[in-house]
Structure formats: C-alpha cells, structure tokens
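User: Good morning. I'm curious how magnesium ion would be positioned relative to this chain. Could you predict the structure with it bound?
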Amino acid sequence: MSFSSNAVIAHRGAFKKNNFPENSIASLQEAIRLGCTGSEFDVRMTADSVLVISHDPIHDGLAIESSTYEALKKLPLKNGEELPTLKQYLLAGKKNNSTTRLVLEIKPSPAGKERGQLIAEKVVEMVRQCGVERITEYISFDFAILKKVQSLQPSALTHYLNGEKSPDEIKKEGISGIDYNISVYRKNPDWIKQAKALGLILNVWTVNDPDQLDWCINQSFDFITTNEPEYLLERLKK
Ligand code: MG
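Assistant: Good morning! Here's the predicted structure, ligand included:
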C-alpha cells in the first residue's frame, strides 16, 4: 500500500459528480478508482449494536440508534444498496485499493458520551477484525472518542474536527492532527504554521469553492476534504 501523494479526501466518498448516494459503497469505490488519498465516511450504531454508515442520525425516517439493522436495511439507498454496515464498508475499502486511506468518522452518539465510548470500542475492534488498521484513520467531533481510540490502538492516526482546541493542546494530548472547518483557519491563520511546526497533520473541511480550494493549496494543507474530488485532482495537476 502506498497512498496517493495528492491531498484529496473525498467527503462521504466521491458521490456528487456521478450522483451516487453519500456514504454509499459506490461512492467509496469511486474515490478509490479516482486515486484519492482518502475517502471519508460516517459511522453510527443501531439499537442492536450494528455499526452502520450514515451521516444523519435518521435513516429514511427511522432513528438509527433506536432501530434494528433488520428494519433499517429494508430501506435501501437511492442506488439500491442496503444501508452499509461498517464491516461491509471496510471490506469494500480493502478491495482493489492501493491508494486510498479510509477516513473513518465516529459520530458522537445522540444518547450521550458513554455510548460514544462504547461505539469507539466496537469500531476499533471491527477495524482490527477486517484487517484494515494500517489504512484507517479516525476523525471525530467528540474528543473523548478520539482519546478512546488512541488508548485502544496507540498506533492509530487520530484527527480532531471540532475546531476549538489550539495546535498546542492537540499536540499535548497526543492526537495526530487537526481537521478543522476552513473558517477556523481563516480566523486563526497562525494555527496553520503552529500545527506544521509541531508536526501535526493538517486537514481542512469541507472545501468546494474553487477560490477557497486555491487558498488551501497555497497554505499547503496535508489534506483537503471536498465534495469535488475530481475538480481538485485536476486543479492539483496544474
Ligand atoms: Mg463526516
């Protein structure tokens, strides 16, 4: 495995251009086909403890955390896929993939911090079971979830999303990188330099506008998370 040297992380997979559902296996496979350095996706857990891929807490009218997987999978994605389980997703992400990191976001649980910790535990176990530790990186808005991942798999790369912690704080906590909204870096331009000086990995989300993408390229972010991976890949070639 040698990851692509471009900075492109496809946000919820490469879904937009081909009208694939966000977070579908089709969008993950397309990100791999394009050779993106990463493909991002969101993980939640059902009432019967099945880890599934969904950005929203509600899937087609059903609350994921209070529904069984049996009930949820009767409601397919718009391309006919069943709501993917994390296991299916990771196995698909392993197949014919020599370029693309699996950027796994653990969503904070609507039921609270404690369930978030349990989800983190189950996710790390599933990543291990599927044999994808070396290509998986973790992101979360919930700092305690990242700390849990770190304690369970010290080699894991972890990136914090929420944007209120300085690079110094992140470094002290042993988290690998900051992955903040572009507005956070615009407000705190020094954080870009500080993060680099501290050896943190520097990510930014979710940048789609051509001028903003150019700004991120000029700032030499390690990774740029975007809904427009095709455009950004082309732009980086120039
Ligand atoms: Mg996400």
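Residues 15 and 21 are 6 Å apart (CA to CA). The chain has ten helices and eleven strands.
Let me know if you'd like a different ligand tried.
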